[in-house]
Design the sequence.
């Protein structure tokens, strides 16, 4: 499935708009990752474990959105946006990754 951030598909004709599709994934940070991250921040460097977890969460959210679009008969998603939300408070250090886009069918030539 074609997934784009642009509102159109260059050189292709969109023949049907199916509507909004979304995907979400939660990333919970545990105490050990938090401690390791703090040490890395003090001594410098990147917290690669967090980056890996964010990538995994983003990919899960995209897969979820893609499945919903496919169920609607779409072959592409346009206008895709990724957002990250810190769900602090009672959720601890939980980050939610949300992906949204418009499911469409474009004419394959």
Sequence:
């Amino acid at each position: 499935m074609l997934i784009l951030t642009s509102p159109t598909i260059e050189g292709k004709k969109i023949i049907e708009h199916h509507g909004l599709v979304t995907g979400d994934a939660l990333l919970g940070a545990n105490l050990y990752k938090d401690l390791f991250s703090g040490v890395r921040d003090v001594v410098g460097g990147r917290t690669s474990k967090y980056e890996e977890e964010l990538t995994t969460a983003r990919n899960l959210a995209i897969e979820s959105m893609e499945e919903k679009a496919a169920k609607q008969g779409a072959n592409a998603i346009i206008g895709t946006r990724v957002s990250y939300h810190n769900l602090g408070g009672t959720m601890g250090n939980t980050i939610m990754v949300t992906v949204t886009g418009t499911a469409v069918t474009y004419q394959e030539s």
Remarks:
- The first strand starts at residue 2 and ends at 3.
- Residues 2-106 form a domain with the Translation Initiation Factor IF3 fold (CATH 3.30.110.70).
